[in-house]
Amino acid sequence: MKSLHPADPAIAVLLPCYNEEQTIGAVVRGFREALPQATIYVYDNNSTDLTALQARAGGAIVIREPRQGKGNVVRRMFADVEADIYVMADGDGTYDPQDAPQLINTLLTERVDMVVGTRRGVTDDAGRAGHAFGNRIFNTLYQFLFGRDFTDIFSGYRVFSRRYVKSFPAVSGGFEIETEMSVHASALRIPVCEMPLDYGRRPEGSESKLSTFRDGAKILWMFAMLMKETRPARFFGALAILSLAASAGFAAPVLYEYFATGYVAKVPTWILSIGLLMLSMIMMVAGLILDSVARGRAEQKRIHYLSHAPAQTIAKAAGEAEKHRSIRAA
Question: Domain 11-228 falls in which CATH fold?
Answer without folding.
Answer: Spore Coat Polysaccharide Biosynthesis Protein SpsA; Chain A (3.90.550)
